[in-house]
Amino acid sequence: MKKTYRLTAIFCLILLATATAMAQQKGNYSMRYVKKHALLSHEGETNVVNVDMEWPEAMDGAELLPLQAYAIKLLFQQNNSDLDPSLQAFMSGYGEEVQQQFDALPDDKRVCYVDIEMRLLSYTPGRYVTFHLKRSVKPASQSSQEASDVHKMVTYDLQTLKPLSRDDILRHDRIEMSFTDFEILLPEDLLQERIYDLSVNDACLVNDKVLLVNSVVGELHGEYTYQLKFSPESMWRYLTKDARAMLKPQKATSSSSKKKSESKGTSQVPSVSNASQPASLLAPDGVVETIQPEFQVPDVTLNEYLTRSVRSVKDEINGVKHGMVMAMVDVDAQGWTTGTRIVLPLAAAYDREVARVVRGLPRWKPAIRNGEPVATQIAIAFEF
């Protein structure tokens, strides 16, 4: 049974910044967490759209536009690299958002369910990052929407700036056509079964291992899909040149250094001046005015609230991890959480749990500057 691990400590810093400064402060690592649920109506049809995305904004100073454009093309079928307008255009294709109750129940035969997901699988600082992308469109019998079910893993080379899918990583036809090394490609419960066919559906790199999603047709189980991780050595003869290069850590060259910032291969806590002092801003007249947003849940401190909210973490890909995750939370002038980013990662499942918790924080009493509420950024660190 796999172990899980709970957090051991929580630290909170309040960073005061204008909205523009918050938008620009991405640092060495920034993963934006976007979650939307919308009920849309178009010409008598009802469309339910769920979006759950982990969107890379900064990683080791590497250019991310090729990865972002790849993801938007696959998920939204648009030629763009800017998430917000692409998502807005995609959702508008399913109608206008319903703002009030229906006069009558929607016709079940004219409903369509749409799920968009982009999830971090693994991040190897300075070398590569891997995501799982999903677009699922399930229309009812009389819906005008076209059904689709796309699942794709992509490994992005942070050195060469290439998004790599299965065919770019693995010579899968060699595995499928010759039954060489067939046994190592099967899970234990299929080793004694007669197998008639094997297909490598997808492949990526995670934590310097090769992750395969395979389908087999067996005598007892019939068609069966599973995923397994393999050492590079066991897959070496099937790996492409690009995959082999990523699995060998390389020193940054002069050409690659132009594509990266001065800090390479490590994630850093954003620099905060006077973090131990009360949060403050300079007013236009030069007078320092101390301001601070307040956590408003009665009889509960922020640390107590967060500690109660965090669940035990189970990470199938990365295993048990010990370390810190830092989240940056944007709080608007009304006190609502408007944005969540992980700026110091640990592993995908741990980062995801922290993002879930801070995204659900209740309304704050906003910070005040010169008598007016202002937007604030709050850094919360979780120690696992």
Secondary structure layout:
Elements: E1 9-15, H1 19-24, E2 29-42, E3 45-59, H2 65-76, H3 83-92, E4 96-97, E5 111-124, E6 128-139, E7 148-157, E8 162-164, H4 166-169, H5 172-177, E9 195-206, E10 209-218, E11 222-230, H6 232-235, H7 241-246, H8 254-257, E12 280-282, E13 288-290, E14 294-295, H9 302-309, E15 324-331, E16 337-344, H10 348-359, E17 364-365, E18 367-369, E19 372-374, E20 376-383
Parallel strand pairs: 3-5
Antiparallel strand pairs: 1-20, 2-3, 2-4, 2-16, 5-6, 6-7, 7-8, 9-10, 10-11, 12-13, 14-17, 15-16, 15-20, 18-19
**CATH architecture verdict of the largest domain:** 2-Layer Sandwich
- In terms of structural class, how would the helical and strand content be classed? alpha+beta
Question: What percentage of amino acids are in beta strands?
Answer: 35-45%
How many domains comprise the coordinates? Answer: 3
The count of helical stretches stands at 10
Could you state the CATH homologous superfamily of the largest domain? Fervidobacterium nodosum Rt17-B1 like
Mean of the pLDDT scores?
Answer: 82
CATH class category label of the largest domain: Alpha Beta
Radius of gyration: 24 Å
End-to-end separation in angstroms reads: 19 Å
Describe this structure in words.
This protein is 19% helix and 39% strand. The strands form five sheets. Strands 1, 2, 3, 4, 5, 6, 7, 8, 15, 16 and 20 form an eleven-stranded mixed beta sheet that branches. With 384 residues, it is α+β, with helices and mostly antiparallel strands. It has helices at residues 19-24, 65-76, 83-92, 166-169, 172-177, 232-235, 241-246, 254-257, 302-309, 348-359, and strands at 9-15, 29-42, 45-59, 96-97, 111-124, 128-139, 148-157, 162-164, 195-206, 209-218, 222-230, 280-282, 288-290, 294-295, 324-331, 337-344, 364-365, 367-369, 372-374, 376-383. The chain folds into three domains: 32-164, 2-Layer Sandwich (Heat Shock Protein 90); 171-239; 280-383, TolA/TonB C-terminal domain (2-Layer Sandwich). It is built from ten helices and 20 strands. Residues 17-25 and 252-284 have low confidence and may be disordered.
